């Protein structure tokens, strides 16, 4: 499945699980408290990479992203949300950017049809394809888009990387038209996170 790329040959496939976790008082007192869990996940069967960090818009949320070899590896640990089969030359490049963007779209009641989900996917693929074609000095790192397959099955997820959280609409102002169209049929949870790589 090609996600947001023009005619680029790719052999890389993965499944990325995404977890928003509310920060506890224990974490505030000692952010290293998460390291035991991160180490466990690093050594779990099928783990490729792990990224984590606090959200920019809402720093009370700690984001954990786990890149699995397959969706089955993810399901074996009974996790909650996943973006399947991302295909890019280097799918984690957006997670290594100064700021990763996670745009999680969930179709509204009355719009949860296969056709609406496919329409949302096509719109977002167009945005990502355009952004992925921009020069390196534009402030964007290549991203992907794909359907959410667990928890919010009526959802679509887009991931990008930016040099700054403010770069998105500044770089591609015409994307606002697509965002406005999507907001008529779907709710958006948008976050930017400076991620740390654990593997």
TrEMBL record:
This is ABM domain-containing protein. It comes from Somion occarium.
């Amino acid at each position: 499945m090609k996600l947001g790329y023009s005619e680029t040959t790719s052999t890389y496939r993965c499944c990325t699980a995404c977890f928003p976790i509310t920060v506890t008082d224990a974490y505030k007192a000692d952010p290293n408290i998460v390291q035991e869990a991160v180490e466990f996940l690093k050594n779990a069967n099928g783990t490729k990479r792990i990224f984590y960090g606090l959200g920019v818009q809402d720093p009370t949320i700690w984001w954990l992203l786990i890149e699995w070899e397959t969706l089955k590896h993810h399901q074996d640990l009974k996790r909650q949300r996943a973006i399947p089969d991302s295909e890019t030359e280097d799918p984690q490049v957006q997670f290594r950017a100064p700021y990763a963007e996670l745009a999680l779209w969930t179709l509204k009641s009355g719009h949860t049809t296969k056709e609406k989900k496919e329409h949302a996917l096509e719109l977002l693929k167009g945005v990502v394809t355009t952004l992925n074609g921009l020069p390196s000095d534009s402030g964007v790192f290549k991203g992907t888009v794909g359907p959410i397959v667990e928890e919010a099955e009526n959802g679509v997820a887009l991931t990008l990387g930016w040099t700054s959280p403010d770069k998105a609409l500044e770089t591609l102002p015409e994307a606002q038209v697509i965002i406005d169209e999507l907001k008529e049929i779907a709710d958006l949870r948008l976050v930017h996170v400076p991620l740390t790589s654990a593997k």
